[in-house]
Design goal:
By secondary structure, the protein is α+β, with helices and mostly antiparallel strands. It has 3 domains: about 140 residues, Arc Repressor Mutant, subunit A (Orthogonal Bundle), CATH 1.10.10; about 80 residues, Roll (SH3 type barrels); about 100 residues, no CATH class. Helix content is about 35%, strand content about 25%.
Length: about 350
């Protein structure tokens, strides 16, 4: 950890040098980092050895350290500061989340161009930073690289030029392949995959399509107009990648999971109300879709659905079905039938009343 802290501190020092045109003293740098002047001097030597053009200069108030921007004139003319370029260089760790998408190769080539502004020693220094700034990608969908690139290129062309298109698509829900005529509105990367949001005249509604299941895509000469009211937000009412109208969802989280829930922003519409005993009441205005139900089920017995009743019934059915998958195969000491046993209510994430389904 000490080695990691040293790398981050040296990076911060480099940014301080760049932001102070008239230089900065060792004492000021030490105060900003809350370390000794001796530590800062070692950091400055390390930056010099890494090839960064740092130097000292005498001033009326003492020695001040600066960063020589002359070697990076072309960089400045391109609108980049040295620290911005360096940040881009090591941020490729975050963008590895796009691995497997048709954009990954383009990103690698872009970073290669950026890195040409850096000396080998600078790159060696920055290559240490991903050890302290890392990202774990979401499970990515599989893509046939060549076919995906061709399809994505046509998708982007049709979207930018507002050109109508034809598409052959395999639907998981219907388990069949179908041809569509569409108005492609946008291409979205979310949850480890690429999605096409398009208006389907045949159905008179906007739908979402997984790009990896597009078998054929053709761009037509006819244009379309994007609706003026189309939201700039992506899937604004869903916790996943679904379309749908929002409705009021009310949940109650157990005190054991409440601190975890509080420290995250699950949806812009969420409102939180802590309860005296430590539990947490949450309301959301989101669409009731598979993403919401999967999210709720992920909390197991630590959450219960307060409203709407229809959602509570659906979650209860899922839990009952999950239990049935285990009970016949394991030596559980249960004398209950596969249907719900009301004696097991304390283990359920919400209370169930016998009149619920009426």
């Amino acid at each position: 950890m000490a080695r990691n802290a040293e790398v981050v501190r040296q990076w911060q020092t480099l940014r301080d040098l760049e932001s102070h045109r008239h230089g900065v003293s060792v004492g000021e740098l030490a105060a900003a980092r809350e370390v000794t002047s001796r530590t800062i001097r070692r950091d400055l030597i390390a930056l010099e050895q890494a090839g960064f053009p740092v130097y000292s200069e005498q001033a009326e108030d003492g020695t001040r350290w600066k960063l020589n921007g002359a070697p990076f004139k072309a960089l400045a003319e391109a609108g980049f500061s040295l620290s911005e370029l360096c940040a881009l260089y090591f941020s490729r760790t975050l963008l590895e989340c796009l691995a497997g998408t048709p954009f990954h190769g383009d990103l690698e080539r872009a970073f290669e161009k950026f890195s040409r502004f850096l000396t080998p020693r600078m790159r060696a220094f920055l290559d240490r930073l991903p050890a302290v700034l890392a990202a774990k990608p979401e499970p990515a969908k599989k893509h046939d690289t060549k076919r995906s690139r061709e399809i994505v290129a046509r998708l982007i062309e049709a979207t930018l030029k507002q050109r109508r298109a034809t598409m052959r698509y395999y639907s998981l829900s219907s388990r069949r392949t179908k041809d569509y005529g569409i108005d492609p509105y946008r291409v979205v990367y979310a949850h480890g995959g690429l999605y096409l949001v398009a208006y389907v005249p045949e159905y008179g509604e906007t739908r979402t399509f997984a790009v990896e299941r597009i078998e054929r895509f053709g761009v037509l000469g006819e244009t379309f107009e994007v609706p003026a009211g189309l939201s700039a937000e992506v899937f604004p009412h869903s916790l996943g990648v679904n379309q749908g109208e929002p409705e009021l969802i009310e949940l109650e989280f157990d005190a054991r999971i409440a601190p975890y829930v509080v420290e995250r922003r699950w949806h812009p519409s969420q409102k939180l109300q802590p309860r005296p005993e430590g539990s947490l009441r949450m309301t959301l205005r989101v669409s009731d879709d598979p993403a919401l139900r999967t999210w709720i089920l992920g909390f197991g017995p630590l959450v219960r659905v307060v409203a709407p009743r229809r959602l509570a019934e659906a979650i209860l059915e899922d839990l009952d079905e999950a239990r049935a998958n285990y009970a016949p195969r394991m030596n559980f000491d249960l004398d209950a039938p596969a249907s719900l046993d009301f004696r097991l209510q304390p283990a359920l994430p919400f209370r169930f009343e016998r009149g619920l389904g009426k």
